[in-house]
């Protein structure tokens, strides 16, 4: 949920007008904004901007004033974004003009600044202009996320911060940090330091210290991005067992342990003591009111092979139905998070296995093609639960050609259900799983393909249903990303005025 | 969670943990282990590694030309390399300034104490030997550089080992080209096939016809290769033993040429009037051939390689068919309705023009397929997938030297470890005699540029092209995919350490991750 500050935040932007007003062609108007704003009107009337005399200012009636850390930082950041390569010393004799940005929350103001920065353009001589424009904007969906996976490959903090910058440019507002998984455990826990000491790829160079984590959280916050941590269990936990013996289930071959381990052992009290302590730490480290508990792809093979687990199943009256054992585990840890005053998000598997979860748990749909996930959307919302849709946006799956179009044409609410049900779809998420991704290829693989989903999650679907119309705008937006130092790959043949200068 | 198509693979345990391979069904993980060949890539023809290790120190490490070496301090190649490498090199024959087409890549390397010895008949072999030497050096757990007692005798299986880059669909800044030439050398590639112009843009700044890039480049100043740029690429490549073979593809793929050279392209007709669109090069005008003569004269002086690639692929006949002057010409020549005869007519004249520059030429397979008369030393470039084996059989059967690209179109990306399918290609798997197979001089990995530019080129090319590198260099029986995975994982981390953003093979880590972000 977004905290609503019930007061006004006003900003005035001053800029200087030449006495002569150029009648521009108006092509750089609202079409130049990505994602497309909900309601907009622009005119060909062109106003030059002089970086010498341009400044942001809090309005007199604004609740937010100098000292509002998010906006103070934003003004500085957006100045550089609007005037790249600015050299002080140019002089123009001009007269003053103003633009006005109103928002109910500081996060809305951030989105407005982003939009404004995209309305400014340069002519062939390098002069800056903005057209007379009126915009009223709001997101279609509240939850617009990107998932990064820092377990399959470690991502240096710089790479995460760069991603957060690019997210802000597309108005994404949730960073789903899939921080640990089978291959490695890079999160340095204060309560259980052995988890990363034994479970990270390297205990010194491939970890996220508490300082690193706080850096990511505050960097995100200044960009209006929530950080949603995921500690996925009971599956996807191989690396946890390296530093926490007895956490994972020992697999058996015949009558003896094989040496391999399976999912978290749900039969031992020590497991729940561990989880409670770990999550207590995670709840205080990550300020977001939500925590992602995972719960996906639990393989029952190892549990089945273990005689103690089988005995536990008998004792609990689960028979041979291991989904009941998984449910038992998930329900326990969801309860743990409730007592920590956090709301849980879990993968759809938890719902599919009929687990009893609190009303406000959010389900994360990830499986299948439209036929599958539209059915799942109906089912879950019919049960009155909120849903985040990720299934159509697994863009770690690359393919030859312009696959951004697939992300763009997703229709999140095209499933059978009542209006009430549709309201339960709180948003969607682009997933960049890390099996084949690290800092060498993350940015071009993520951008601008994720931006296609960004527009689907922000803008009005009717206004943004044409791939043909979107193509030139997205191409343009991609060139803007390049200008801002984001290594976004090309959509198709062509060029940008300013090409990427790295390798 | 991963996609719904999870496969089940055995989990290999790290050597230090002991234990046997066990089945672990929830996720598959291939943990790279050490190969007995270390991190050598491509795998040399003959390698003998021992456990005896020597320490290297930067203070006392030098490369020295042996007394018997004909490569002296004036050998630009060897002195410019700032390898911190202690080798004594002696060679018994003189080196040639420019890499000749097909020889001189072999070397012998013996690592011992207090000297390592590198022998090569040509400087190009010495370069390869130095790269191999650098791959033998490793750090122990104390951070000291070590190298083991080794004997290597190496030569490439195929003489032509190339990479195609496309700087027309997207302009490629010089920096990217140079970085990839550097990486090519690390992988023992020796040909840079520069597909420099095409339909979309003409970035080559011609001194004879400056209008071509003035009007045809994406931007006449920021998106062009000046003569100085081209020189830089050629020299940079030369110092790394890489030939630069330029491709000026005609008569199709030439839209951008028409912007700065009026009357070069065929005007298309809609009914009886010109439609405003243009098609392939106009083969019926004398001005066309005057232009080509002057143009290729320049090209032959700018690019020192013995070969020029003339393209000749994917010629669309629709525009020619629509043009009344061409129809008349077809009648006069007695070609009937067979426009491939017109194409041959053009190509024939073009090849004659290029012959007068004393260059050999390479052409895409269509030119051969359409029955054009070719010089005996023409190199035919097989690229069409589907019936590749048949084509290889036909081309070599007709006695032409052949290079293979069809299975190695690296611009066709897909999810997963697709390097394996490039690695598994066997270029000589077609039906043919020994003589025929000898005509296959190598292959090229192609990275067409429709979806590629400086933002994603390097990770898309590497390490996938490395799979092709080994297939073209190493022996035919080097096919162990698990060992390749282990060596390639280490080789990939080495490229990253050398600041090349080669993308990962699978979940894992490098001791030094990429810092470029």
From TrEMBL, chain A:
Residues 141-460 form the Glycoside hydrolase family 20 catalytic domain. Its EC number is 3.2.1.52. It comes from the Eukaryota. Signal peptide: none annotated. It is an enzyme of class 3 (hydrolase). Residues 96-119 form the Beta-hexosaminidase eukaryotic type N-terminal domain. Keywords: Disulfide bond, Glycoprotein, Glycosidase, Hydrolase, Lipid metabolism, Lysosome, Membrane, Signal, Transmembrane, Transmembrane helix, Zymogen. InterPro entries: Beta_hexosaminidase_sua/sub, GH, Glyco_hydro_20_cat, Hex-like_dom2, HEX_eukaryotic_N. The active site is at residue 297. It catalyses: N-acetyl-beta-D-6-sulfogalactosaminyl-(1->4)-alpha-L-iduronyl-(1->3)-N-acetyl-D-6-sulfogalactosamine + H2O = alpha-L-iduronyl-(1->3)-N-acetyl-D-6-sulfogalactosamine + N-acetyl-D-6-sulfogalactosamine; Hydrolysis of terminal non-reducing N-acetyl-D-hexosamine residues in N-acetyl-beta-D-hexosaminides; a ganglioside GM2 + H2O = a ganglioside GM3 + N-acetyl-beta-D-galactosamine; N-acetyl-beta-D-galactosaminyl-(1->4)-beta-D-3-sulfogalactosyl-(1->4)-beta-D-glucosyl-(1<->1')-ceramide + H2O = a beta-D-3-sulfogalactosyl-(1->4)-beta-D-glucosyl-(1<->1')-ceramide + N-acetyl-beta-D-galactosamine. It is found in: Lysosome. It holds the Pfam family Glyco_hydro_20. GO terms for biological process: carbohydrate metabolic process; ganglioside catabolic process; glycosaminoglycan metabolic process. GO terms for molecular function: beta-N-acetylhexosaminidase activity. The chain crosses the membrane at residues 12-34. One of its GO terms (cellular component) is lysosome. Hydrolyzes the non-reducing end N-acetyl-D-hexosamine and/or sulfated N-acetyl-D-hexosamine of glycoconjugates, such as the oligosaccharide moieties from proteins and neutral glycolipids, or from certain mucopolysaccharides. The isozyme S is as active as the isozyme A on the anionic bis-sulfated glycans, the chondroitin-6-sulfate trisaccharide (C6S-3), and the dermatan sulfate pentasaccharide, and the sulfated glycosphingolipid SM2. The isozyme B does not hydrolyze each of these substrates, however hydrolyzes efficiently neutral oligosaccharide. Belongs to the glycosyl hydrolase 20 family. There are 3 beta-hexosaminidase isozymes: isozyme A (hexosaminidase A) is a heterodimer composed of one subunit alpha and one subunit beta (chain A and B); isozyme B (hexosaminidase B) is a homodimer of two beta subunits (two chains A and B); isozyme S (hexosaminidase S) is a homodimer of two alpha subunits. The composition of the dimer (isozyme A versus isozyme S) has a significant effect on the substrate specificity of the alpha subunit active site. This is Beta-hexosaminidase. It comes from Sphaeramia orbicularis.
UniProtKB/TrEMBL annotation, chain B:
It holds the Pfam family Glyco_hydro_20. One of its GO terms (cellular component) is lysosome. GO terms for biological process: carbohydrate metabolic process; ganglioside catabolic process; glycosaminoglycan metabolic process. The keyword Disulfide bond applies. The active site is at 314 (proton donor). The keyword Transcription does not apply. Residues 158-475 form the Glycoside hydrolase family 20 catalytic domain. It comes from the Eukaryota. It is an enzyme of class 3 (hydrolase). Keywords: Cytoplasmic vesicle, Disulfide bond, Glycoprotein, Glycosidase, Hydrolase, Lipid metabolism, Lysosome, Signal. It is found in: Cytoplasmic vesicle, Secretory vesicle, Cortical granule; Lysosome. One of its GO terms (molecular function) is beta-N-acetylhexosaminidase activity. Residues 1-20 are annotated as: Disordered. Residues 106-136 form the Beta-hexosaminidase eukaryotic type N-terminal domain. It catalyses: a ganglioside GM2 (d18:1(4E)) + H2O = a ganglioside GM3 (d18:1(4E)) + N-acetyl-beta-D-galactosamine; Hydrolysis of terminal non-reducing N-acetyl-D-hexosamine residues in N-acetyl-beta-D-hexosaminides; N-acetyl-beta-D-6-sulfogalactosaminyl-(1->4)-alpha-L-iduronyl-(1->3)-N-acetyl-D-6-sulfogalactosamine + H2O = alpha-L-iduronyl-(1->3)-N-acetyl-D-6-sulfogalactosamine + N-acetyl-D-6-sulfogalactosamine; N-acetyl-beta-D-galactosaminyl-(1->4)-beta-D-3-sulfogalactosyl-(1->4)-beta-D-glucosyl-(1<->1')-ceramide + H2O = a beta-D-3-sulfogalactosyl-(1->4)-beta-D-glucosyl-(1<->1')-ceramide + N-acetyl-beta-D-galactosamine. Its EC number is 3.2.1.52. Belongs to the glycosyl hydrolase 20 family. There are 3 forms of beta-hexosaminidase: hexosaminidase A is a heterodimer composed of one subunit alpha and one subunit beta (chain A and B); hexosaminidase B is a homodimer of two beta subunits (two chains A and B); hexosaminidase S is a homodimer of two alpha subunits. The composition of the dimer (isozyme A versus isozyme S) has a significant effect on the substrate specificity of the alpha subunit active site. Hydrolyzes the non-reducing end N-acetyl-D-hexosamine and/or sulfated N-acetyl-D-hexosamine of glycoconjugates, such as the oligosaccharide moieties from proteins and neutral glycolipids, or from certain mucopolysaccharides. The isozyme B does not hydrolyze each of these substrates, however hydrolyzes efficiently neutral oligosaccharide. Only the isozyme A is responsible for the degradation of GM2 gangliosides in the presence of GM2A. During fertilization is responsible, at least in part, for the zona block to polyspermy. This is Beta-hexosaminidase. It comes from Sphaeramia orbicularis. The lineage of its organism: Eukaryota, Metazoa, Chordata, Craniata, Vertebrata. The gene is hexb.
